[in-house]
C-alpha cells in the first residue's frame, strides 16, 4: 500500500462495506496519535510545550484516585474515538463532494471515496516521526490522489483537483506551524 499504491488501489473493489477501511483508519490513528503526542516535545520544527498537557500536575492521577483517573482516561479515549470517526466520515464527505464536482456523473460512489480516504491514512503510521512526519502527511495526500484516481477511474488532473483543496489546507497548516 505505501510502496505501490497504484497497484493496491487498482486491486481494491470500489464497492463494498465501510467496516474494513474504517477499522484500518482507526488502527492507523490509534497507533500514530499516542506516538505523536509522546514525541511532539522533541520535534525541532514543532511548537514547544508538547502535546501531553503539561498543565496537569505530575501526581494528578494518584491524587484523584485510581478509579476516577481511569474513568477520566476512558472518557477521553471514547471522545477521541468519536472525534476520529467523525473526522474520517467528514473528511471523506468533503473529498467526495469535490469528486462529485469534478467527476460529474462518472464516479464510483461514496464507498470508493471513503476507501481512498481511509486507506490513505496509512501514511499516518509515519506521521508521528519528528520532522519526517511532515513529509509523511504530504505523502498521505499523494495516497489519496492515487486512491481517487484508481477507484473512481478518473483522470489524474481530476483527482489532483479533488485533492488540491485538502492539500492547500494541509500546506497552510504546516506554514502556520513554522511561522
Automatic annotation (TrEMBL):
Membrane topology classification: Multi-pass membrane protein
Keywords: Membrane, Transmembrane, Transmembrane helix
Provenance organism: Rubrobacter xylanophilus (strain DSM 9941 / JCM 11954 / NBRC 16129 / PRD-1)
Regions crossing the membrane: 20-40, 60-83, 88-105, 125-147, 159-178
Residue ranges annotated for the Yip1 domain, each copy included: 1-176
GO CC annotation terms, alphabetical: membrane
Location in or out of the cell: Membrane
Protein name: Yip1 domain-containing protein
Keyword field contains Transmembrane: yes
InterPro entries in the record: Yip1_dom
Pfam entry (one): Yip1
Principal cellular location given in the protein's record: membrane
Lineage: Bacteria, Bacillati, Actinomycetota, Rubrobacteria, Rubrobacterales
Amino acid at each position: 500500500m505505501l510502496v505501490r499504491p497504484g497497484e493496491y488501489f487498482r486491486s481494491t473493489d470500489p464497492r463494498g462495506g465501510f467496516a474494513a477501511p474504517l477499522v484500518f483508519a482507526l488502527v492507523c490513528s490509534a497507533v500514530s496519535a499516542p506516538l505523536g503526542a509522546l514525541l511532539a516535545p522533541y520535534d525541532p520544527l514543532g511548537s514547544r510545550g508538547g502535546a501531553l498537557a503539561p498543565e496537569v500536575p505530575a501526581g494528578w492521577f494518584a491524587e484523584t484516585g485510581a478509579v476516577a483517573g481511569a474513568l477520566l482516561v476512558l472518557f477521553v479515549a471514547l471522545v477521541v474515538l468519536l472525534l476520529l470517526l467523525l473526522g474520517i466520515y467528514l473528511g471523506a464527505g468533503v473529498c467526495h463532494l469535490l469528486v462529485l464536482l469534478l467527476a460529474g456523473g462518472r464516479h464510483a460512489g461514496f464507498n470508493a471515496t471513503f476507501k481512498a480516504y481511509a486507506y490513505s491514512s496509512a501514511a499516518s503510521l509515519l506521521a508521528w516521526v519528528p520532522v519526517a512526519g511532515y513529509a509523511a502527511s504530504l505523502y498521505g495526500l499523494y495516497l489519496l490522489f492515487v486512491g481517487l484516481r484508481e477507484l473512481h477511474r478518473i483522470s489524474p488532473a481530476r483527482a489532483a483537483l479533488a485533492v488540491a483543496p485538502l492539500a492547500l489546507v494541509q500546506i497552510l497548516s504546516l506554514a502556520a506551524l513554522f511561522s
